């Protein structure tokens, strides 16, 4: 595999073309960003831990029969992935109230949500990723009704694998964001699953082990990502 030109640079990852038009190299950088890119920093070691974390989770999902874009990790900070035609919506699942749900609806943080809540957001930093529903997605042509159904179904399938995985490791998987894309006529899980895109709390102390440590200036951001990784058994 030959790594080629930079295709695009996001806030935390970069995608490079390869000699295979169906594959990309995804580079996990040390850049951290929050509040739609307003708050920025470089956190040494973030790219490496996120690449390992993502590989571990995507492999667990593959083992459970959920197709992901991951082909294989290439080195500390890079992975080879299937090149997806990304759908510009974010799928969020919430097992416990927190973040924008608590703010929007005036719900205390930390309440178990049964059944879990599913929300769509439009992936658009300039608009601050507004919450949208199925009707918006259909009307504006961001995805078909079949694709919407598949994204929801796959997001809950992911939850059925990951919620117990974190619980058994003494953590709450509070909420997370997934992105899907089209590949060879199928809807495939893309982007990443790392502490950058989810909330992970210690089940006993409720200590945060995710990007909220960066958002809220709690310190020990990367150390906390490593603690979550260790508890899942990947270090
Ligand atoms: P952001 O877009 O939020 O700044 P990143 O820095 O994580 O995020 O950039 C990664 C970009 O790559 C995102 O736009 C994401 O949708 C896209 N992407 C992730 N996985 C794939 C894939 N397998 N194929 C094509 N694009 C992908
Ligand atoms: N999330 C994300 N990227 C986004 C928006 C949300 O990774 O652009 C994740 C976020 O880390 C959290 C979950 O999705 O785990 C729900 O986020 P929320 O809507 O509560 O927004 P926030 O409080 O993070 O602004």
Task: Write out key terms for the chains shown.
single chain, 235 residues, alpha+beta, 5-stranded antiparallel β-sheet, 6 helices, 34% strand, globular, binds adenosine-5'-diphosphate
What this model shows, in words?
Helices cover 30% and strands 34% of the residues. It has helices at 46-63, 99-105, 134-139, 145-168, 212-215, 221-232, and strands spanning 3-9, 13-18, 23-28, 31-34, 39-42, 70-73, 78-82, 85-86, 89-96, 112-122, 131-132, 171-178, 180-183, 186-189, 198-202. Bound molecules: adenosine-5'-diphosphate (ADP) and uridine-5'-diphosphate. Uridine-5'-diphosphate binds next to strand 9, helix 2, strand 12 and strand 15. Adenosine-5'-diphosphate binds at residues 10-13, 15, 24, 69, 81-84, 86, 179, 181, 190-191.
In short:
With about 240 residues, the chain is an alpha+beta fold. It is built from six helices and 15 strands. The protein has helices at about 45-65, 100-105, 135-140, 145-170, 210-215, 220-230, and strands spanning about 5-10, 15-20, 25-30, 30-35, 40, 70-75, 80, 85, 90-95, 110-120, 130, 170-180, 180-185, 185-190, 200.
Number of helices: 6
N-to-C series of helices and strands: EEEEEHEEEEHEEHHEEEEHH
- Catalogue the unreliable spans: none
Radius of gyration: 17 Å
Mean pLDDT: 98
Shape: globular
- N-C termini distance: 28 Å
Kindly estimate the percentage of residues that lie in beta strands according to DSSP: 25-35%
Strand order of the largest sheet: 1-2-3-7-6
- Which hetero ligands occur in this complex? adenosine-5'-diphosphate, uridine-5'-diphosphate
Helix/strand class:
alpha+beta
Strand segment count: 15
Helix content: 25-40%
Q: Characterize the main sheet.
A: 5 strands, antiparallel
